[in-house]
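Reopening this ticket.

The earlier resolution said the output was attached, but the attachment link was broken on my side. Pasting everything inline this time so it's all in one place.
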Amino acid sequence: DGSNILDLDDPRIFENPIIYMSEPGNWTSNDEEAKSLRAYLLKGGFIIFDDFEGDRMWRNLVTQMRRALPALHFIPLDVSHPVFQTFFGIQHLDVPHPLMRGVLPGFFGMFEDNDPSGRMIALANYNNDLGDYWEWSAEGLYGSDPTNDAYRLGVNYIVYAMTH
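Inline output:
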């Protein structure tokens, strides 16, 4: 159908080295989707979670990922992690949420064998919505500094995923 939106049990996910999921705080998966996501990630795929905030949405993401990869867990990332230094040298991770002032963004990675020095397979932009910066950049809704920072992060994510 030409759509770029795929269900996780669609075999075409394996044609994409990177999956972007918006609003994973409301995501639910069934057994087939969890099995397919597990196979995709362990085969070399990379998933980015974006546009979610708050404890309830975080717990839901963790629960859904536990279905796919029960032995793995999210690990907090700081600016020194290679995902933030792959193309652009990111100096800070304080890109604010574009719509919800006062929430502190956090960045979390999930790694093969829970080893933060190994390959990251999932990245969560918690308490943030980088995609909103990307989507509305031509409109100038959020200012150039955070929009540029969001693009730098996105480019780094893609370069990291394609080289690790």
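Reporter confirms the inline version is readable. The chain has a mean pLDDT of 95. The two ends are 31 Å apart (CA to CA).
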